[in-house]
Amino acid sequence: MSMAPWNKWRLEHPDVRPDLLGVELTDVNLSYASMSYADISHADLSRANLHHATLRHTDLTATSLRNADLSEADLSFSLLSGADLNGAILRGARLRGANLIGASLRDVDLRGADLTDARFDADAIETRKSRFGRGVSYLEKLALGLFSHGKRRDLPRPNKPAGSHRSGRHI
Question: What's the number of domains the chain is made of?
């Protein structure tokens, strides 16, 4: 299924906020879909392919995204409160300013995800240091609010080896 007609319609109707409240879209392919500002709360998107989807400012409150592929998706400033993200792939996803308070994040792959100013519950993260290495430790610190939300230069960098140019803002 091509997302081209949907994405074209979204470009032509930027003021319309799609209401997909409670829809069941399990196992559906929505890769590259433009879903910004949509209400997809209380929906079932389990095992959905949302690779590279644009979900900026989207309401995904209490939505099941269990085992969904959200790799490279843009979820910046989205509401994911109470969402079930267990087993989801968020590799390389942008979660800047996202609200994940109350979300279940067990076995989530967050490698390379941008979590700048994202909000979490500290107990939502299962510590699996063997799988994520140093990333979980940094993610736990973000979830606990131990870092300032100031400018990039104000953020401490986790266990940064000398000579490394890796930013502390990404996992």
Answer: 1
